[in-house]
């Protein structure tokens, strides 16, 4: 059912909050398109439908995580080997965070993320994994007790920050760097407050810290005080003490 036969196409059409005029007027009504079972399924790939999917991801994430105790998000490479010192450090960090009274949130994948979840689970704490839909996704690791999978990176990023009181960042690749600089930007611009960021592994992070100081700050692209937005350590106890002190626990 479109425009009745013999009637001219209207010059103006209101579809909810949307106004269409002249050549942009559509045939039929919103209800008709909803109830019509014929035609293709391209509508599920339109931007308005994506908005609903995005909204549903926020609702699911908020619902699943709303009752978490104080938590720390731990980041690191999915490629970290289980027999490596970095993996063992992740386990010790996850365990120590639980013993300090925190839940542990990771990206839910293998490697360093799995290590932190394992440590949290061994300490009988709350072990959370926030996964992401990727072509090479391996699923949530076996040490996750509460898991949420997301389609959209930006929704997942919101959950990492909203439900954590700080970040501990183990050696990692582009995804880890993305999360790190997202957090640094939020703290620098005061979008979040009292949000400690600890980089674990002085040798690994040395080149990045040197570049920030000698190129970014020296070139006037950032302030000297921006280097105080994060801490670097090789000591698990110090990492936990830093997030505990700055979060006021």
From TrEMBL:
It holds the Pfam family Lysine_decarbox. It is an enzyme of class 3 (hydrolase). Coiled coil: none annotated. InterPro entries: LOG, LOG_fam, LOG_family_nucleotidases. Its EC number is 3.2.2.n1. Keywords: Cytokinin biosynthesis, Hydrolase. The keyword Hydrolase applies. It catalyses: N(6)-(dimethylallyl)adenosine 5'-phosphate + H2O = N(6)-dimethylallyladenine + D-ribose 5-phosphate; 9-ribosyl-trans-zeatin 5'-phosphate + H2O = trans-zeatin + D-ribose 5-phosphate. Belongs to the LOG family. This is Cytokinin riboside 5'-monophosphate phosphoribohydrolase.
């Amino acid at each position: 059912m479109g425009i009745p036969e013999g009637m001219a196409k209207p010059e103006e059409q209101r579809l909810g909050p949307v106004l269409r005029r002249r050549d942009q007027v559509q045939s039929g009504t919103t209800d008709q398109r909803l109830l019509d079972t014929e035609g293709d399924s391209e509508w599920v790939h339109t931007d308005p439908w994506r908005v609903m999917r995005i909204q549903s991801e926020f609702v699911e994430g908020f619902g699943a995580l709303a009752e978490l105790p104080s938590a720390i998000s731990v980041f690191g490479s999915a490629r970290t080997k289980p027999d490596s010192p970095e993996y063992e450090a992740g386990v010790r960090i996850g365990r120590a965070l639980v013993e300090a009274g925190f839940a542990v949130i990771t990206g839910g994948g293998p490697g360093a993320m799995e290590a932190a979840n394992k440590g949290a689970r061994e300490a009988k704490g709350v072990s959370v994994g926030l996964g992401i839909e990727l072509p090479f996704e391996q699923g949530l690791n076996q040490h996750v007790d509460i898991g949420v999978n997301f389609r959209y990176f930006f929704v997942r990023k919101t959950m990492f920050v909203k439900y954590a009181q700080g970040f501990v960042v183990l050696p990692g690749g582009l995804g880890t760097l993305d999360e790190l600089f997202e957090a640094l930007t939020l703290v620098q611009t005061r979008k979040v407050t009292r949000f400690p960021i600890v980089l674990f592994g002085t040798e690994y992070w040395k080149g990045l810290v040197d570049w920030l100081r000698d190129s970014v700050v020296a070139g006037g692209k950032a302030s000297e005080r921006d280097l105080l937005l994060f801490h670097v350590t090789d000591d698990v106890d110090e990492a936990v003490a830093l997030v505990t002190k700055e979060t006021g626990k």
